[in-house]
Each structure stands twice: as C-alpha cells, then as structure tokens.
Amino acid sequence: MGKGGSLSDGVIKKILLSYAYVAIWIFLSFTVIVYNKYILDKKMYNWPFPISLTMIHMSFCATLAFLLIKVFKVVEPVSMSQEVYLSSVVPIGALYALSLWLSNSAYIYLSVSFIQMLKALMPVAVYSIGVLFKKEGFKTDTMVNMLSISFGVAIAAYGEARFDTWGVILQLGAVAFEATRLVMIQILLTSKGITLNPITSLYYVAPCCFVFLLVPWIFVELPILRETSSFHFDFFIFGTNSLCAFALNLAVFLLVGKTSALTMNVAGVVKDWLLIAFSWSVIKDTVTPINLAGYGLAFLGVAYYNHSKLQALKAKEAQKKTAQADEEAGRLLEERESEGNGKKSESQS
Description:
mainly alpha; 81% helix
C-alpha cells in the first residue's frame, strides 16, 4: 500500500481502538452495577450490607494501587505534602465515601433502571454546585436545560412502578455528594496543579475513604453481621466483584486518556440505555411508558448539555490556536525587523 493507504490504515486502527476502549468501559461499568445489585438485593444474593461492600472494594483497590505504584512501579506517585493531603484529599475521600455508601444502599430499594434514570440528574447537580462555588458562570439557557432534565426525571419518577421514597432519597443524596466531590476536585486539587489518574486517585483516596466508612460500619452493620452467624465470606463473589470495580477504574484511565472525558459522558448515556433494557428484559424490572418518556426528555437535555460542552471546548481550542498563531507571527516579524536592522548597520559600516 502507498502512503495514503498506510495513513488510512492508521486512522482506522485509531478509530477501532477508541471503540474498543468505549466497549470495555461500558462492559465493566455495566458489570459492576449489575453485580452490586445482585449482591445487595434481598431477592438475589441477599447480602444487604452496602457499607461492608464498599469497604471491601476500597481495601481491595487501595492494596492493588499500592502494589502498582510502590512495588511494580507501573505508575509514578504524585508528590504531595501532608498538609495538602489533609486539606485536599481527605475532604474528597469523605465525599466519595458518602457517595458510594448511599448509591450502593439505593440498590436495596430501587430497580437498576430507575437508578439510572435518577443518575441523569448528575449534570444538574454538578452545574448547580459549580455555580454555588463560583466555578461555573450562571447562564439562563444552561439553567433552562437543567430544569428540562429535572422535569424529565420527575416524570420518570412519577411513572415508576416500584417507587420507594427512602431509596430515592438515598440515590439523590449519592448524586449530590458525587457532584460536590467532582467540584471539590477542581477547587482543591486541579487549581493547585495536582492531577490524579484513577490509580493514584485510589492510592491516596481509598484508604481515607475506608477510614470514614469504618465509623458508620461499627454502629450500623457490624452488630447485624455478628448476629448473622450463618454467613460465610465468599472469596469468589467478593473477589471478582472487587476486581471488576478496580478494572473499571483502569478502564476510565484508558478511556479518558486515549479519547476524552466527553467521550466517556456519551458512552455513559449508551450504557444507561443498555442497563434499562437489561433491567427490563433480564432482571424483569417494570419499565413503564411514562418512565421511558420522562427519561427520554432527560436524555435529550443531557445530550444537549454534552453538545454545548463540546462546542465550548472547540471554541476554546480555536481561540488558543489563534493566539498561538498571532504570537508566532509577531515573533517572526520581530526576527525579520532585527535582521533588516542588522543588514542596515553592516552596509553603513
């Protein structure tokens, strides 16, 4: 093949790899959600201990992250002082602990499909908290879009066959804590020039997340676990579940690193529809037409939000390139002027 053919092959390979990363992320995210539901649901594996499950995940992920960074040296650790760790990482760890605890608890009370519909509120929560902490500028058209997403989710909730108030409160709480965590990462870490990939993030955040969960676990779940003498720790179930959770973090690292965060958002929408279809067809959860109509409206709002973010990123990139081109042109002009001046001085001498 000629040069054109080899270039074409290279482009095709890049596209296929991008689709492969998206497929791996969707598969692992899908697996973790369904697996967690299976373990926690009283009608399935019947182990309704969300704090314990989250602590197992955190201890497993922290151990593997430690091995990858300190023993195998696959990833370089981030240099961080104790003061930065306590003031920046610990609050993020606390928010992450609360988000995981509440989101895993919601699986006991709500269907997988309805949980995915409620998660559509994430852009609304992130934008609202971003405006509150002055990380996002208030825009009327964006707020109208956020209201349309909220209205769509409200319709989906109205049509939910297995509506459980406590389950909805738990999931909305999880969304609020996760959105706050994402904004706090920008304020406490990114603004200080600290960037953590999923492995270094687990290395620093998972241990303090485990410690934060330990307190409610001692009072809420430990007494019940002591009374449940029939329970035997299944290393296969909890081991494979934790491995999937860790693999998902690696998939996030691959997907965002090789494509973009926006690609992950779009892939997330595809994953949500697949989960709703799976929940209806395999788990036999009831999905009503009102559910789908409401989520469809929310989906359009989220899609428009992602499109707006993409356009803003493109405009910013174009502005950056223009500024660089102007700077380069200015530099070349200065060089030519200095060369001209040099020649003049030579001719005069």
